[in-house]
Design a protein that fits this description.
- The complex is a heterodimer of chains A (306) and B (298).
- Chain A has 306 residues and is an all-alpha fold.
- Chain A is built from 14 helices and two strands, in the order ααββαααααααααααα.
- Chain A has one domain: MetI-like fold (Orthogonal Bundle).
- A two-stranded antiparallel sheet of chain A has the order 1-2.
- Chain B is mainly alpha-helical and 298 residues long.
- Chain B has two domains: 75 residues, no CATH class; 211 residues, MetI-like fold, CATH 1.10.3720.
- The interface between A and B is large, with 110 and 102 residues.
C-alpha cells in the first residue's frame, strides 16, 4: 500500500461504525494545529503575498498581477525553469532505470544481497548532505578525481563544474547516484509478485525476456508509477547540491540555478518576498501539474490487479 | 525454471544437460557479481577517496587518485576541528539539539495523529487523511516565506524553535503515513479486548498500540535523525548567527571562507559530519529498509 494507492482508493470507501469525534479531536489536535498554523495558514498567506510587494520592513503593498507579469519577462526565471526541467526530466528516468535494473539483478536470491543492498542504499542517505556536495565539487573540479580517471583512459578532461555546458550534468550525476531508495522499493515490489505466475509462464514456454516483459514489468507498474511520482516531486525541490556546488550563485552563467535556488536568492538575498512567494506558487503549480499528468497518464500504462 | 520440462526426459540426457547447463549458470552468476561489484566500486570510490584524502597532507591530495595511504596524516582533523571560531564539536552539539528535539516531537505528535487516523472513526476522516497525504507532496518553498515572517514575529529567528516546534505539530506527514500503515497491521481484536476491560482510547494508545509499534517508532527516529542532521535549507534560513550554526552551515561557511585552499581540513570535517549518519545507518538499517519498503521514502 503506497500513498498513491491510498489516494486512488479514496472514492470507494465510506465510514461504517459510529464516529468517535471527541477522542479523535484530542489525538489529532497537534496535527490539526500544524496543518492550519504551519501549513495551510502560511500557504494562504504566501498566495496573498504573491500579489504584493513586500520586503519584510514595510507592510505588504498590493500590486495585483504585477509579480506574475514580471515572470513573463524575467530572463533568469526562464533559464532557471529550463535548468530545473532538464534536471528533473533527465535525472529521474536514468535514476529509476538504474534502480529497476539493479533491483532485478539482485532479486533472484543472489548471494550477498544484504551487502549490495546496503551499499547501494547508503548514497541516498548521504546525497542530500553538504559534505557530499562539497565532495562533488572537488571530484568534478579541473584537477579532480573524475579528470584523473579520464586521464587513465587517455581522455582530456575539463573543469566540469566551472564549465556552464557541463555543470548541470554533475548535479544530474549526483541525483542518479542516490538511486538506492527507489531500488529498495522496487526490491520490495518484486518480492510480492507470486512465484506461480512465473511457473505458469515457464510451463507455457515463455523465454526469460518474455517472462520479464509479460509478468514482471506489468505487475511492477504500480511501483514504477509510485517511484516516478515521488522522485519527480523530490527532484523539483532540489536545493542543497546546487547551492553548495555554485557557492549559492547558481552559476556558472546560471547553469545550476534551480528554481528553488532562484527563489531563495530573490526572497532571502534581495528580500523581494512578494516575488519569491509568486515563484513558490509557480513551483507548486508546476509540481501539481506534473503529478496530475502522471496520475492521468497512469490509466494507460499502470496495471492494477483489481 | 525450464527444469520442469527437462525433468521428464531420459536420465542420461538430463545428466548431460545438467553438466552443460550448470556452467552457463555459474558463468552468468560470475558476470552478475562482476557487474555488481563494478557498480559498488564506482559508487563508493568518491566517498572512500574523501576518507583517504582527509588522512593525506594537503599538497598530496590532488596528485593521488588512488586509495593507498603511505602514512597517516591526522593533522587535517586537528586543523579542521579548530578552524572555526568554535571547535567543530560546538556545531555538532547544536545539530544534536535540533535532531533530538525533532525526534521527540515526531515520535509524540505523529504517533498520536496516526492512532487517530488508523483507529478512530470521525467526521470527514477520509478527507482529512487525503489532505495529510497531499501535504506530503507540498514543497517547503510554498510556506517558507510566511512561515519565516510568522516565526520572526515570535522572535524565533536564530533559535532552534522554528526547526523543532513544527515537529511537535506532526508536520512530517511521511511519518504519520508510515505509522498509520503500521497500526493497521496490528490486530484490532487487541483493542477490542482492552475496551471490554474498560480501557479508553488514551489507555489503548499507551498500553497496547505504542508498545506494539516500536519498530515503526524506531524507523521514524532514525529517518528523522538522518534528514534533520543533513537538512540545509531551513537551517540556512533560520540560523544566521554563527553561534547558532549547525554542522551543515558550519561546513558550508568553512568551504566558502577558505575558497578551496585547505582541502585536507575540509575533507576531514566532511568525514566527521557524515560519521553520525553512517553509524546510525549501520546500526539502524533494518528499520530503514523496512520503513522505506512499506511506504517509500525519499
Amino acid at each position: 500500500m503506497t500513498a498513491t494507492d491510498e489516494l486512488r482508493g479514496l472514492r470507494d470507501s465510506r465510514a461504517k461504525s459510529k464516529p468517535q469525534n471527541k477522542a479523535a479531536f484530542w489525538f489529532l489536535l497537534p496535527w490539526f494545529l500544524g496543518l492550519f498554523a504551519v501549513t495551510l495558514g502560511p500557504m494562504a498567506a504566501s498566495l496573498y503575498l504573491s500579489f504584493t510587494k513586500y520586503n519584510l520592513l514595510q507592510p505588504p503593498e498590493f500590486i495585483g498581477f504585477a509579480n506574475f507579469e514580471r515572470m513573463l519577462t524575467d530572463e533568469r526565471l526562464h533559464s532557471s525553469l529550463a535548468v530545473t526541467f532538464t534536471y528533473v526530466l533527465v535525472s529521474v528516468p536514468i535514476q529509476l532505470a538504474l534502480a529497476l535494473g539493479l533491483a532485478i539483478l539482485l532479486d533472484r536470491g543472489i548471494r550477498g544481497l544484504a551487502f549490495y543492498r546496503s551499499v547501494f542504499y547508503l548514497p541516498s542517505l548521504l546525497g542530500a548532505s553538504v559534505a557530499i556536495a562539497v565532495l562533488w565539487r572537488t571530484v568534478f573540479g579541473t584537477d579532480g578525481l573524475f579528470n584523473e580517471g579520464l586521464g587513465f583512459l587517455g581522455i582530456e578532461g575539463r573543469g566540469w563544474i566551472s564549465d556552464p555546458e557541463t555543470a548541470l550534468s554533475t548535479l544530474i550525476t549526483l541525483n542518479v547516484w542516490t538511486f538506492g531508495s527507489p531500488m529498495v522499493i522496487f526490491l520490495a515490489g518484486l518480492r510480492q509478485i507470486p512465484a506461480m505466475y512465473y511457473e505458469a509462464a515457464a510451463v507455457d514456454g515463455a523465454s526469460p525476456l518474455r517472462r520479464f516483459t509479460s509478468v514482471t514489468l506489468p505487475l511492477l507498474t504500480p511501483i514504477i508509477f509510485f517511484n516516478l511520482v515521488l522522485q519527480i516531486i523530490h527532484a523539483f525541490q532540489s536545493f542543497t547540491q546546487a547551492f553548495i556546488v555554485s557557492s549559492g550563485t547558481g552559476g556558472p552563467v546560471d547553469s545550476t540555478l534551480f528554481i528553488s535556488l532562484y527563489l531563495y536568492q530573490r526572497g532571502f538575498g534581495n528580500f523581494d518576498m512578494g516575488y519569491a512567494s509568486a515563484l513558490a506558487w509557480l513551483l507548486l503549480v508546476i509540481i501539481a501539474a506534473f503529478t496530475a499528468i502522471n496520475f492521468w497518464a497512469s490509466k494507460y500504462w499502470v496495471y492494477y490487479d483489481d | 525454471m525450464t527444469d520442469t520440462l527437462t525433468r521428464t526426459a531420459a536420465p542420461q540426457r538430463a545428466a548431460a544437460d545438467r553438466r552443460t547447463r550448470r556452467s552457463p549458470g555459474r558463468v552468468r552468476a560470475f558476470f552478475k557479481h562482476l557487474l555488481l561489484i563494478a557498480c559498488v566500486v564506482v559508487m563508493l570510490y568518491p566517498a572512500l577517496w574523501m576518507v583517504v584524502s582527509s588522512l593525506r597532507p594537503n599538497d598530496e591530495i590532488f596528485r593521488s587518485p588512488g586509495l593507498v595511504l603511505t602514512d597517516l596524516e591526522t593533522g587535517n582533523y586537528e586543523a579542521g576541528w579548530n578552524a572555526f571560531e568554535h571547535p567543530f564539536g560546538f556545531f555538532m552539539v547544536n545539530s544534536a539539539i535540533v535532531v533530538l528535539g525533532a525526534i521527540v516531537g515526531n515520535l509524540i505528535a505523529c504517533s498520536m495523529a496516526a492512532y487517530g487516523f488508523a483507529r478512530l472513526e470521525f467526521t470527514g476522516r477520509r478527507w482529512w487523511f487525503a489532505i495529510m497525504l497531499l501535504t506530503l507532496m507540498l514543497p517547503v518553498h510554498v510556506i517558507i516565506v510566511p512561515q519565516y515572517v510568522l516565526f520572526s514575529e515570535f522572535g524565533w529567528v536564530n533559535t532552534f524553535l522554528p526547526l523543532i516546534v513544527p515537529k511537535f505539530l506532526a508536520t512530517d506527514a511521511f511519518f504519520v503515513f508510515l505509522m498509520v500503515q503500521f497500526i493497521r497491521g496490528i490486530p484490532k481484536e487487541l483493542d477490542e479486548a482492552a475496551r471490554i476491560d474498560g480501557a479508553g482510547h488514551p489507555r489503548i494508545y499507551f498500553r497496547i498500540v505504542l508498545p506494539l509499534m516500536v519498530p515503526a517508532l524506531a524507523t521514524t527516529a532514525i529517518f528523522t535523525f538522518i534528514w534533520t542532521w543533513n537538512d540545509f535549507f531551513s537551517q540556512l534560513i533560520y540560523l544566521i548567527d554563527p553561534d547558532m550554526h549547525t554542522v551543515p552551515l558550519a561546513l558550508r561557511a568553512f568551504v566558502d571562507q577558505q575558497a578551496g585552499t585547505n582541502w585536507g581540513a575540509t575533507f576531514a570535517m566532511s568525514v566527521v559530519s557524515l560519521l553520525p549518519v553512517f553509524l546510525v545507518f549501520l546500526f539502524g538499517q533494518r528499520y530503514l529498509l523496512r520503513g522505506i519498503a512499506t511506504t517509500g521514502g525519499k
